[in-house]
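Sanity check record (used in CI):
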Amino acid sequence: MDPELEAFVPLLPRQDLDDPAAARERYSAYAASKPGPDTTGMEIEDRRVPADPEVPVRIYRPQGARGAVVWMHGGARIMGSLDTEHPWAGRVAAAAGAVVVSVGYRLAPEHRFPAALEDAYAALEWTAEHAAELGVDPARIAVGGHSSGGNLAAAVALWARDHDGPPICFQLLNEASLDDRMETWSARNFTDTPWATRANVAASWRHYLGSRPATQYAAPSRATDLSGLPPAYVATAEFDPNRDEDIAYAVRLLQAGVSVELHQWPGTFHGSQAILSADVSQRQIARLGEVLRRALAD
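Expected output for Esterase:
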């Protein structure tokens, strides 16, 4: 493990996802303790996307932005909000020079699949319809997210392809949770790694799916056809149960004719980029901005 990250491991809060309400409180407290992003010169606005029910979004508009990314937060499908995601959404907007539409999707287990996907897709449609108002080119709209947010980004890309949805120019999948089967080498061997233990990964899927079988829109790794999807940036952490499912998804995208950049960050663990003082975390965050900036400029 990267020595700068390893020093923080004993200090990281342990999560028990069997109690979602308590997990949300701990997650919110941890997010509130992190330093906020530099949003100087950036317009930030809360809106509600007309849907049933309405979907809260927070819009970050850097000066001169020409593209947008519909951004889904992490949190194992049961945690997270516009407020907990503020540090990351603001940093992504600043680093990418892009409008970020951060989505406050419904959480499990109160709202199981497909509620979160419906909310994320409604936000994508709204962004495309309001591109002129947002000051962006409708041909420069991406989707992205971290962990469970990466799951939703991949699922939205699949859904938009299969249902003639708005064009998506790029998908950013950062340490995404894509496969409910938990059968890869990393899922079987990284059982007690920081933040993402095997028990918590299983609990996350259980809360999200309930008794329903997983489809490709719940677990994108189950998709049999990945052709026609937007170009992708797939980032993985070395000591992450999700690592191998993400690498396999990237390879399958390539084999389906989709342009992919795959970046495996050595010495990292799931969500370790939250440790902002580490050099590798700074490089990870900068890279997210670089790939989005390039994708939305093309």
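The beta strands are 43-49, 55-61, 68-72, 99-103, 141-146, 170-174, 232-239, 260-269. If this sentence no longer matches the regenerated tokens, the check is flagged for review.
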